[in-house]
Design brief:
Blueprint: H1 14-29, H2 37-46, E1 51-55, H3 56-62, H4 64-72, H5 74-92, E2 106-112, E3 131-141, E4 145-155, E5 160-165, E6 192-194, E7 200-210, E8 224-230, E9 242-254, E10 264-277, H6 291-301, H7 306-313, H8 322-333, E11 338-339, E12 345-346, E13 352-356, H9 362-372, E14 376-380, H10 386-389, E15 391-395, E16 402-406, H11 408-411, E17 416-420, H12 427-431, H13 434-438, E18 441-446, E19 449-454, E20 458-463, H14 476-480, H15 484-487, E21 492-496, H16 502-517, E22 538-539, E23 558-559, E24 576-577, H17 579-592, E25 596-597, H18 599-618, H19 629-645, E26 650-651, H20 653-668, E27 670-673, E28 681-684, H21 695-712, H22 727-732, H23 734-742, H24 750-765, E29 774-775, H25 776-785, H26 792-804, E30 808-811, E31 814-817, E32 824-832, H27 838-847, E33 860-869, E34 872-881, H28 891-895, E35 900-906, H29 910-914, H30 916-926, E36 932-938, H31 950-959, E37 963-966, H32 975-992
Helix pairs in contact: 1-5, 3-4, 4-5, 7-8, 18-19, 18-20, 19-20, 24-25
Protein name: DNA helicase
Catalytic activity: ATP + H2O = ADP + phosphate + H(+)
Keywords: ATP-binding, DNA replication, DNA-binding, GTP-binding, Helicase, Hydrolase, Lipoprotein, Membrane, Nucleotide-binding, Nucleus, Prenylation
Length: about 1050
């Protein structure tokens, strides 16, 4: 008996069958078409797959008659097509590597189906026997069971083998179905024994797909159809997946046997399935991220006040609810799940409960979460039961066996469950979700089934008070009427009241009226908007899986500010992130950032928890939720989500502080007012004071004052300053801010500042005319000798003001005049591990010197040298610092204003090359994102000791958009060229591009990702001197 023989014996004329097989074989062997199917077959064999996906458009271009026949008569055309594939596989496979013995190979069809692409609602009798394309949601999957295809039996009496093949109506081919009677005796009545090792079985599964709800006609229920999935198609999809299905629409005969009814049961026999969105790998569907998306995400994350920007872009058409929007944003980001070695599971998902008066946008917020979250399932209190939320034991229609059917929370694993009218749910059903909300599992012990299912989801619920209207004169517990055992499982509980306030009511009414006046772009006024079904006609698209296509270069993460829609956005800033970009940002932050608690944040959270518990014992504060040990985990989850919003790998103290502010608002409706002394001042929400301290507005006011001081000094307002400092740098400089609060530099009167400036200029041009650097004590002595002496604090403050105005350069008790005998001044920094030769590179370029006894740099050093580029004098101010960790506190000042960087490693020490990635990350965290970076492999004279291959370094530089060169400060090779190249590149960018605001997202042009220009005066002319 031959194994792997073709089972679908054709009932067509042998010559016609052979002609079709030959034509299909020629099509697969043809290499002049759009697809090389010979290579595709080899890849299929190598991947141990058994289904070749053929584009019907390719077949249509090769032979239109056969393409039409394949769609309209798959029973007649698909068997010879698969026969041709089987023959070609046997020809192309490698007998030494590929085992194809006993395997059947199949053809899957995708592409444009034309009239054969319909919805489940449009399937008609005319479609029977045709290859159809459908789209829908998988609602049910049966167990995978074996279906016998060939049985082999042995007769002891006659010592003979008997074989029987089976066909049913769900198989392709024109042959009639065979009897399903299983032989137990031969024709003589002798007993037969089944040889199971010689039998052939095929995997079999039944699924149901339902019409997508958004495409169902108004007022009608979505319709479904059963699908047979055989062989390699089983377990390709799961309930909840949105798929495109290709299969043959067939009838299985009378629905009820032995009756006179003329209705027949119909189903689809699967041929190819393409998953539109799924939960592959236990996760959720991911949006493809382009390189531009990642650059924009990193750029936005470095902005000061990035969390407020994200929160304002969340449901901008909903008026107010600032703290609720922040909470929803944190819920979408989530905390960090912990699975300890001892089996303890600590959830990272955040649960939110909204309790409030009617018409306070609770349901609208749920709708927004449904549209924003990659995986979200909606339900209501009255429309769901306990088993509907968790899991139910049902009976399989085909086998009669008991099986589990997943509920809403199991289907929403790694997603969000939105429950509206939570208070309408019965107590019995509510108890069913207790385990899900804390342990995040569903344990079933019914009808002989005992198992545990994962339900790792966030829960956001909306409920009304027990009296319909929230009574502020009663305790929160008497308004909410939910047990503490359930309330403690919600991380945040917001009480939303519909307060009567004339000003606020007027603003809400204006907002609602503006919403009703909104007309979508391109839609004529007064004409009803047409429903858009967005039905994809090309099954499978251009590839088997969605690829991260390159985004257009002019794509912006912001959408145009519209006063009719974006009422929740600060009108002074008027920046709103687009919905698409916000989804990508949340996906990136949630999946690629795993922050860990810092000691400072842990101490802060511990103190806050203790204080909250002590406040509770005082008994004078009404709280909305119980304070238990779960509150401590809530603080950790909220602080971690805050860190994720900044794309930070560490949960800083400021994140814990922000988490405390949000928790206090949810518990007590307290609004924390940050102060310089860090003493917490709180005020009740709804008071006359402002609810929040807008970081960006405070930054703007602070720097408007500084710009005014710059103008009075005769300089220009600094265009390089922008709210781009990250929360991380704020945490690092908190100690400096606190010390500045205690001892603040005195304000310098303008008259004294002008006098001091004039004396400094005179001293630098006369006494120290020949010196490039001047020690500050000597400079101050010369200044005080020219007239009435200045106090030390006043002199220091005046020097700082001149430094901010780029009129003098300060570093380590030394000063350098901002000369005017050059056209541009570029600050370039040298970074890299200690001992890589940075100081010798600096001395070789600026003074043409090299020292074998060079010691490690202490603090910061810098030197200057002027070069000529295209007739312009370029002065390079090159800064060098130590590579040791103990000097890393100077990073902010060291990188400030730098437009170029040389990232140096030692080619003879591989450890210095390994640390290049860390240095590059620090550079991009602290420096401007437009900085020009060159990777420099120093000490090229030590080629006999080389530990870093040149090609490896070149590949790293190309991957990170860096230029690359190898130098030797000892023999001066390529040192001059390295500095010339980077300064020339900066100059060309300066001369060709306009400086973009640091708030703007960088848009690459021609492969570059930088944009720099020099300072300009009021007339737009290039200002000589100063640093750009």
């Amino acid at each position: 008996m031959a194994e792997g023989m073709a089972l679908d014996v054709p009932a067509l004329d042998d010559d016609l069958y052979r002609d079709r097989t030959r034509t299909f074989a020629e099509f697969l062997d043809d290499q002049s078409g759009a697809t090389d199917y010979r290579s595709a077959i080899r890849r299929m064999i190598a991947a141990d797959e058994r289904r070749l996906i053929v584009n019907v458009d390719d077949l249509r271009a090769y032979n239109r008659e056969y393409a039409t026949g394949l769609l309209d008569e798959p029973n007649d055309y698909l068997p010879p097509f698969e026969h041709a594939l089987q023959a070609l596989v046997e020809q192309l496979h490698d007998p030494l590597k590929d085992d194809i013995q006993g395997k059947l190979f199949h053809i899957g069809v995708r592409g444009s189906f034309g009239d054969n692409h319909v919805s489940t609602r449009m399937l008609r009798s005319t479609h029977l026997g045709k290859l159809m394309s459908l789209e829908g949601i998988v609602t049910r999957c049966s167990l995978v069971r074996p279906k016998i295809v060939k049985s082999v039996h042995y007769c002891d009496a006659t010592s003979r083998f008997h074989m029987r093949e089976y066909r049913d109506a769900t198989m392709y081919g024109s042959g009639p179905p065979t009897s399903s009677t299983y032989p137990t005796t031969d024709e003589s009545g002798n007993r037969l024994t089944t040889e199971y090792g010689l039998c052939t079985f095929r995997d079999h599964q039944m699924i149901s797909i339902q019409e997508m709800p958004e495409r169902a006609p108004p007022g009608q229920l979505p319709r479904s159809v059963d699908v047979v999935m055989d062989d390699d198609l089983v377990d390709k999809v799961k309930p909840g997946d949105r798929i495109q299905l290709v299969g043959m629409y067939k009838s299985l005969g009378n629905r009820v046997g032995q009756s006179t009814t003329s209705t027949f049961r119909t189903l689809m026999v699967g041929n190819y399935v393409f998953v539109l969105s799924n939960k592959a790998g236990g996760g959720i569907s991911q949006m493809p991220l382009s390189d531009l998306d990642i650059r924009n995400i990193n750029k936005i994350s470095r902005r000061r006040g990035v969390f407020d920007l994200l929160a304002e872009s969340l449901a901008p058409s909903i008026f107010g609810h600032e703290y609720l929007k922040k909470a929803v944003l944190l819920m979408l980001l989530g905390g960090q799940e912990k699975n300890l070695p001892n089996g303890t599971h600590i959830r990272g998902d955040i649960n939110i409960l909204m309790v409030g008066d009617p018409s306070t946008a609770k349901s609208q917020m749920l709708r927004f979460v449904l549209n924003m979250a990659p995986l979200a399932i909606a339900t209501t209190g009255r429309g769901s039961s306990g088993v509907g939320l968790t899991a139910a034991v049902t009976t399989d229609r085909e086998t009669g066996e008991r099986r589990l059917e997943a509920g809403a929370m199991v289907l929403a694993d790694r997603g969000v469950v939105c429950i509206d009218e939570f208070d309408k749910m019965s107590d019995v059903d509510r108890v069913a979700i207790h385990e899900v909300m804390e342990q995040q599992t569903v344990t079933i012990a019914k009808a002989g089934i005992h198992t545990t299912l994962n339900a790792r989801c966030s829960v956001i619920a909306a409920a009304n008070p027990i009296y319909g209207q929230y009574d502020v004169h009663k305790e929160p517990g008497r308004n909410i009427a939910l047990p503490d055992s359930l309330l403690s499982r919600f991380d945040l509980l917001f009480v939303i009241t519909d307060d009567i306030d004339e000003v606020r009511d007027r603003r809400i009414s204006e907002h609602v009226l503006r919403m009703h006046r909104y007309v979508q772009p391109g839609q004529p006024v007064g004409v009803p908007a047409k429903d858009s079904l967005d039905q994809v006609l090309d099954v499978g698209g251009a590839s088997e899986a969605p690829q991260p296509a390159e985004a257009p270069e002019d794509e912006s993460p912001f959408e145009r500010y519209n006063p009719l829609l974006h009422v929740g956005v600060d009108s002074n800033r008027a920046e709103v992130l687009s919905m698409t970009f916000l989804k990508k940002y949340l996906q990136y932050a949630k999946s690629r950032v795993a922050p860990v608690l810092s000691p400072g944040a842990a101490a802060w959270i511990s103190n806050v928890y203790a204080n909250l518990r002590n406040d509770e014992q005082g008994g004078n504060v009404r709280r909305t939720a119980p304070l238990t040990a779960r509150t401590l985990e809530t603080l950790i989850r909220l602080a971690t989500a805050y860190a994720k919003a900044r794309l930070s790998a560490t949960v800083e103290e400021q994140d814990a502080e922000a988490a405390e502010a949000l928790l206090r608002y949810a518990l007590f409706k307290e609004v924390m007012k940050p102060s310089r002394s860090k003493r917490q001042r709180t005020t009740r929400a709804g008071s006359q004071e402002s609810d929040e301290d807008d970081d960006d507005m405070a930054w703007d006011e602070e720097h408007e004052d500084q710009d005014e001081a710059d103008r009075q000094l005769g300089g220009q307002p600094s265009t390089a300053r922008a709210p781009t400092s990250t929360y991380g740098t704020r945490a690092a400089t908190r100690a400096a801010e606190q010390s500045a609060d205690v001892t603040q530099a005195p304000a310098v009167p303008m008259s004294e500042l002008q006098a001091f400036r004039a004396r400094v200029a005179q001293a630098l041009s006369s006494t120290f005319a020949d010196d490039e650097f001047v020690e500050l004590p000597a400079l101050l002595q010369a200044v005080n000798a020219a007239g009435p002496p200045f106090e030390m604090e006043v002199a220091r403050a005046a020097l700082d003001a001149m430094s901010e105005a780029n009129q003098i350069m300060l570093a380590d008790e030394a000063a350098m005049a901002a000369e005017s005998n050059y056209d541009y001044l570029f600050k370039v920094v040298l970074i890299g591990d200690s001992g890589t030769g940075k100081s010798n590179l600096l001395s070789r370029f600026t003074r043409n010197e090299f020292s074998l006894d060079s010691r490690s740099t202490i603090g910061v050093e810098f030197a200057t040298r002027s070069i000529n580029v295209d007739g312009k004098t370029i002065k390079a101010q090159i800064w060098d610092t130590a590579g040791q960790e103990r000097y890393r506190a100077i990073t902010s000042a060291y990188y400030r204003g730098a437009v170029g960087a040389l990232l140096v490693y030692d080619i003879a020490k591989h450890s210095t090359y390994v640390n290049v990635s860390r240095w590059l990350k620090e550079l991009r965290d602290h420096a401007d994102s437009n900085i020009v970076v060159m990777l420099v492999g120093n000490k090229s004279d030590l080629k006999h000791l080389r530990a870093v291959p040149t090609e490896e370094a070149k590949a790293f530089a190309a991957e990170n958009n860096l230029s690359f060169i190898e130098t030797s400060a000892l023999d001066a090779s390529n040192v001059e060229q390295a500095f010339q190249n980077i300064l020339t590149e900066i100059y060309h960018i300066v001369s060709n591009k306009a400086l973009q605001s640091s708030d703007d997202v960088i848009k690459p042009s021609g492969g570059e990702t930088i944009s720099v220009q020099p300072s300009t005066d009021d007339g737009g002319q290039t200002k000589k001197g100063g640093c750009c």
